[in-house]
């Protein structure tokens, strides 16, 4: 059995769950790209794939993840996955209720139609779990769940149906044709395309009057503004807003994010 996850933080959590239940025994494979942002037109073709790599390369420059672009080869991962499926392997695709995972699911399963019956999905959509304090909560990501809670979740695994293999790739085709820079989850498996500046208002709502270090601002953006995307894309949007004068940014990018400071221009707070 091969388990597929879409976020790095999910790997250790799922491995801990496997250690508790031998029936889950198998390797955990990671699809590394975040298909909820960036260009995806003709992504299965060389030109579209290269366009996306170039886009990520630009965003990752001077980030803590500069080498990431050379580590991400999801095409090779799928190639190796298909070799395992040809050898009669079974795979489980794990999804949390978030755009990152669901977009990754659409991208992946659209390439696996020939293996209907071997490909299972486990979507933790609007399901209650018990947190560490014993309370009930509804996780949006796999790594938010206690490993022991996965033992209940495994019962939800089911084969991807033939009709899903027919219909779901059409969703990916639609998204690819729209080719928006942002994709959000509106419930179920419904992904909706949004413009580049979709998160800008939420980001601006926590940018202070006084200079703040970029890493501290990112903490505020994710904790207070509840922005559901990655830090690299948020920094990209901050750079765009600085270019058009919406915010001020100062510092030497070549020295990394920790040297960058951000504030509202002229001491004006953004409207929440």
Oligomer: single chain
Give the CA-CA distance, first to last residue: 47 Å
**Beta-strand percent range:** 5-15%
Helix content: 25-40%
Strand order, sheet with most strands:
2-1-3-4-7
What does this 3D model show about the protein?
With 272 residues, the protein is α/β, with parallel strands linked by helices. The protein has two domains: 2-175, no CATH class; 200-267, Arc Repressor Mutant, subunit A (Orthogonal Bundle), CATH 1.10.10. The protein contains ten helices and twelve strands. The protein has helices spanning 8-20, 46-60, 68-71, 74-86, 99-109, 150-153, 162-178, 200-204, 214-223, 231-243, and strands at 2-5, 27-30, 91-95, 119-123, 129-130, 136-137, 158-159, 182-185, 191-194, 212-213, 248-250, 261-263. The strands form four sheets. A five-stranded mixed beta sheet has the order 2-1-3-4-7, sandwiched between helices. β5 (129-130) and β6 form a beta hairpin. α5 (99-109) crosses α7 (162-178). The radius of gyration is 20 Å and the shape is globular. The termini are far apart. The model has no long low-confidence stretch (mean pLDDT 92).
